[in-house]
């Protein structure tokens, strides 16, 4: 499977909230680096923590790939993804106000030519996310 197909498979699994299938897209030593959250480490640890937390706090969490760019070498993919959900409980330091967010994310993914993800780096506007959900202070 190509890396671009693996990335599509990852986000399909994310929409289904299938963490095992999401992890299956990573190599044995696959890493994530979610820059705005300061989260960097093994997908099997740090990834599971953030993905399961998001799914718990935002039970209708979903995503849509809006653009996907494959590198010529077959070992890199950059994708734009719109992620959205409605908050159902307190989480991530944000008191629940039942608000919905829709926020563009950028993912830079590197991996093997066989398609396994070695590293997934994510960027989003955390201040906009907090604002959409009604968090107006850092404390």
Topology:
Elements: H1 3-16, H2 19-23, E1 26-34, E2 39-42, H3 43-57, E3 62-70, E4 76-86, E5 100-111, E6 117-123, H4 126-132
Parallel strand pairs: 1-6
Antiparallel strand pairs: 1-2, 3-4, 4-5, 5-6
Structure write-up:
The protein has helices spanning 3-16, 19-23, 43-57, 126-132, and strands at residues 26-34, 39-42, 62-70, 76-86, 100-111, 117-123. It is built from 4 helices and 6 strands. The radius of gyration is 15 Å and the shape is elongated. The chain has a single domain, classed as Roll (Nuclear Transport Factor 2, Chain: A), CATH 3.10.450.50. The chain has a 6-stranded mixed β-sheet, with helices on both faces. Residues 7-111 form the SnoaL-like domain. This is SnoaL-like domain-containing protein.
